[in-house]
Amino acid sequence: MTEPLRVVIADDQALVRAGFQMILTAKGIDVVAEAADGTDAVDAVRRTRPDVVLMDIRMPELDGLEATRRILTGAAGEPRVIMLTTFDLDHYVYAALTAGASGFLLKDVTPEHLVAAVRMVRSGDALLAPAITRRLVERFTRRDPDPPAAHRDLATLTPRELEVLRLLAEGLSNAELAGRLHLSEATVKSHVARILAKLGLRDRVQAVVLAYRAGLINPMA
């Protein structure tokens, strides 16, 4: 039997934590801890070893960005982090994505979308579907030039893998990639896995960020 999905909720607003906890628990997702600031969030993650962390950006003591960095510099088996924000183009969200977060949600997310997002990142995918994510990356990559190392890493990719990376950065799902390239979804998944491994990336979000920073996608297109 599959073990229940384990989640930590970190937000300085008690009502937000309570609401998210109620939604997730009703769907059989185990909320193993709550935290009201970043320091408590880091401690809770180390203590409970969850699959997913819902992390507010703006918290006292230690903000969600620094808490995310500390969590994601741990040992293997670290959780996926979803950032929570009230601002859809917050520069802190972009910084969190580059630090390894697997996506972000607005706090007014619907219950259905919240549950789907938590399950999605636990399975190893990333929150790339909303057009807002692309706008976020487009906006902030223009201010944040990438060091030359990232460009050198791209030289390890085959022409097909570069093509997959470009399309992935446009927000295409595996099914859409398969249709565009006339490949099976299994083959697309293999290409994506090899891209992430070669570039040393956590997930699709980081691949999108790198593609923009390396100039594979024209933000003005």
UniProtKB/TrEMBL annotation:
Residues 6-122 form the Response regulatory domain. SMART domains: HTH_LUXR, REC. InterPro entries: CheY-like_superfamily (IPR011006), NreC/VraR/RcsB-like_REC (IPR058245), Sig_transdc_resp-reg_receiver (IPR001789), Tscrpt_reg_LuxR_C (IPR000792), WalR-like (IPR039420). Residues 150-215 form the HTH luxR-type domain. The keyword Transcription applies. The keyword Transcription regulation applies. It comes from the Bacteria. Keywords: DNA-binding, Phosphoprotein, Transcription, Transcription regulation. The modification 4-aspartylphosphate is found at D56. SUPFAM superfamilies: CheY-like. This is Response regulator transcription factor. It comes from Plantactinospora alkalitolerans. The lineage of its organism: Bacteria, Bacillati, Actinomycetota, Actinomycetes, Micromonosporales.
